[in-house]
Design a protein that fits this description.
This protein is of the alpha+beta class. It contains 6 helices and 15 strands. The chain has helices spanning 75-90, 122-129, 134-152, 213-222, 250-253, 268-283, and strands at 4-5, 31-32, 36-44, 48-55, 60-67, 99-104, 110-115, 117-118, 120-121, 170-173, 183-186, 202-205, 208-211, 228-229, 242-243. The strands form 5 sheets. The protein has a 6-stranded antiparallel β-sheet. Strands 9-10-11 form a 3-stranded antiparallel β-sheet. A hairpin with a 3-residue loop joins strand 2 (31-32) and strand 3. The longest helix has 19 residues, at 134-152. The relative contact order is 0.13.
């Protein structure tokens, strides 16, 4: 069995009972936020770190995603993030990771509790095997699309956009029926909206310090799996703060350019990313 899925994802970095976290996050054997016994760190990602833990009340193994303190740093964004996760916890689909809870530590650091998965990411599979045969690609794509259908048409609610679909966020786990074949789980819906500013080369203007146009454009052209972030601007369409350039639709990529007025995004952004993923699986 491959390493438990969740590695390289956003998550916990918190103190034993919800107090101020140290730089390395909670330790193995520590009780995080008074509820979860930390068993091990599964990985570190752009949004934070992921931990395997045991829910002490329910006596089940879970994955905890503890976000960096600069993700959803102000109260308005924490409320928006809470609402986003509330929608996700109502979204039930076999190909979408089960979001169990959303909470914050005593110092205001947000974290998620999700089902714990065993398997590997599609990115890991492609790195190991290269191009996949169409007979394997098609079932993976159909499961991704079925998950997106549920998210994009969630009954009476608003459509839930992923906005960062890429092989790293497509997990392949054992089939729940016990049969063979790849079983897909999508993770990290909507988190790109809340990623913090990480500008290596800021330039001052009337909106404050922002990433220089040249820095962003170079990243959009040259990045492989790199995630690019810029600050949200006030007024107009909310600016998505994070995407992975190689898999982002052009209108989503434009949100990364400070001098370009962002346009409203819809389900087509995710469909574009699925097309890129399909090409990557077939071409290697």
């Amino acid at each position: 069995m491959a390493d438990p899925v969740g590695a390289r994802r956003a998550a916990p970095s918190g103190a034993g009972t919800g107090g101020r976290r140290d730089a390395d996050g909670p330790s193995v054997g520590e009780v995080f936020d008074g509820k979860y016994l930390v068993l091990r760190q599964l990985g570190q990602g752009g949004f934070g770190a992921v931990y395997e833990a045991r829910d002490l009340a329910l006596n089940v193994t879970v994955a905890i995603k503890l976000l960096r303190s600069d993700v959803a740093a102000d109260e308005a964004e924490r409320l928006a993030l809470r609402e986003e996760v509330r929608q996700l916890t109502r979204l039930r689909h076999p190909n979408i990771v089960d979001w169990k809870a959303f909470s914050m530590t005593a110092d205001g650091t947000p974290y998620f509790v999700m089902e714990h998965l065993q398997g590997e990411s599609l990115a890991s599979l492609l790195a190991r095997e290269g191009a996949l045969p169409p007979a394997r690609v098609i079932p993976i794509l159909l499961q991704i699309l079925d998950a997106l259908r549920a998210a994009h048409q969630p009954g009476a609610g608003e459509p839930i956009l992923h906005l960062d679909l890429k092989p790293d966020n497509v997990l392949l786990v054992p089939h729940p029926s016990g049969g063979g074949g790849d079983f897909v789980k999508l993770i990290d819906f909507g988190l790109g909206q809340f990623a913090a500013h990480e500008a290596p080369t800021p330039s001052e203007d009337t909106d404050g310090a922002r990433v220089s146009d040249e820095t962003i454009r170079n990243a959009l052209v040259a990045a492989e799996e790199q995630t690019v972030r810029v600050e949200r601007v006030a007024g107009g369409v909310p600016r998505v703060r994070s995407c992975t350039p190689n898999y982002a639709a052009p209108e989503l990529g434009a949100h990364m350019l400070p001098d370009v007025e962002p346009v409203a995004l819809d389900q087509r952004c995710d469909i574009y990313s699925v097309g890129v993923i399909a090409f990557r699986m077939l071409a290697g």
